[in-house]
C-alpha cells in the first residue's frame, strides 16, 4: 500500500510539472508571437521611412542638377582640373599611368548621375575634347542595381585610334614624396565590361570613390586640402613625440648630473 501511494504521488508531481511546463511554453509562444507582431510593425515603418528618404533624395537630386551643371561650366575654364583632382586623390592617383595622365589632359568634364529612381542605379561619364588617343568624346560606365544585391555593369567600348590602344605604365619606385605610377591603365576600368559586353559585379571600389568621395567636392582634392590635413595630423604626432622625447632627455641629463656629483 505504501509503495502504491508513493507511486501515485510521484505520478501526480510529474503531471503537475508537465502541466506547468506546458503553461510556460504556451506563455513563451504568446510572447514570441507578440514580439514578432511588433517587429513586423517596425519593419513596415522602416520601409515607409526608406521610401520617404528616396523621395527626398530624388527631389534634391533634381535641385542639385543645375548647380552641378553650373559647377562643370566653371571647371571647364580651369586647365587640367580633373587631372589635378585625380592626382591629388590618395586612391585615384594610384590608378593613372603616365600615359593616362596625358589622356586626362583632354578630359573636359566628369559627371555622376543617379537614375531617376535612385535605388535603381547610376552612371559615371567622362567627357573628352577631341584627342589623338580615341574617337569617343564620352566614356560612360553604367551601374544598374538588380535583385539579390547584384549590380549589372555596362560600359562604353572605347574606339582607340590606330596605333593607340590601352596604355600600360611601368612600375617605378617611390622617390621622396612622389607616388609610384600604376602598372595597369585606368582605362582598363572600361574594358572589363567591354570584353564581356555586359558584366555582373557586386562591388566596384573605383566607382564608389568617384561617386561618393571625388564627385561631391572635387575642389578639396584640386586644392590638395586632403593631403594638407593629413600633413597637419602628422605634424601634431611628431610634436607629441618630440615633447615626450625631450622629457626623457631631461630625465637622462638629471641622472648624469647626479652621477657626476657623486
From TrEMBL:
Residues 218-262 are annotated as: Disordered. This is DNA replication factor/protein phosphatase inhibitor SET/SPR-2. Pfam families: NAP (PF00956). Residues 225-262 have a biased composition (Acidic residues). Keywords: Chaperone, Coiled coil. InterPro entries: NAP-like_sf (IPR037231), NAP_family (IPR002164). Residues 28-62 form a coiled coil. The lineage of its organism: Eukaryota, Viridiplantae, Streptophyta, Embryophyta, Tracheophyta. GO terms for molecular function: histone binding. It comes from Handroanthus impetiginosus. One of its GO terms (cellular component) is nucleus. Belongs to the nucleosome assembly protein (NAP) family. GO terms for biological process: double-strand break repair via homologous recombination; nucleosome assembly. The keyword Coiled coil applies.
Amino acid at each position: 500500500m505504501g509503495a502504491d501511494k508513493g507511486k501515485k504521488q510521484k505520478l501526480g508531481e510529474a503531471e503537475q510539472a508537465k502541466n506547468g511546463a506546458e503553461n510556460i511554453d504556451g506563455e513563451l509562444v504568446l510572447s514570441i508571437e507578440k514580439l514578432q507582431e511588433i517587429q513586423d510593425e517596425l519593419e513596415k515603418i522602416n520601409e515607409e521611412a526608406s521610401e520617404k528618404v528616396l523621395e527626398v533624395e530624388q527631389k534634391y537630386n533634381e535641385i542639385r542638377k543645375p548647380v552641378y551643371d553650373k559647377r562643370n561650366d566653371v571647371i571647364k575654364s580651369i586647365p587640367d582640373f580633373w587631372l589635378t583632382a585625380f592626382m591629388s586623390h590618395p586612391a585615384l592617383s594610384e590608378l593613372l599611368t603616365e600615359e593616362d595622365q596625358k589622356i586626362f589632359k583632354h578630359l573636359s568634364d566628369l559627371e555622376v548621375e543617379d537614375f531617376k529612381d535612385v535605388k535603381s542605379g547610376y552612371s559615371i561619364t567622362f567627357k573628352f575634347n577631341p584627342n589623338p588617343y580615341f574617337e569617343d568624346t564620352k566614356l560612360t560606365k553604367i551601374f544598374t542595381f538588380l535583385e539579390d544585391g547584384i549590380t549589372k555593369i555596362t560600359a562604353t567600348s572605347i574606339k582607340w585610334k590606330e596605333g593607340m590602344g590601352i596604355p600600360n605604365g611601368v612600375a617605378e619606385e617611390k622617390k621622396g614624396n612622389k607616388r609610384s605610377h600604376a602598372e595597369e591603365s585606368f582605362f582598363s576600368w572600361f574594358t572589363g565590361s567591354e570584353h564581356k559586353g555586359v558584366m555582373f559585379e557586386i562591388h566596384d571600389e573605383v566607382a564608389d570613390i568617384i561617386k561618393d568621395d571625388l564627385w561631391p567636392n572635387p575642389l578639396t582634392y584640386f586644392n590638395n586640402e586632403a593631403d594638407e590635413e593629413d600633413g597637419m595630423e602628422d605634424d601634431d604626432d611628431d610634436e607629441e613625440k618630440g615633447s615626450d622625447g625631450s622629457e626623457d632627455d631631461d630625465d637622462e641629463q638629471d641622472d648624469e648630473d647626479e652621477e657626476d656629483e657623486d
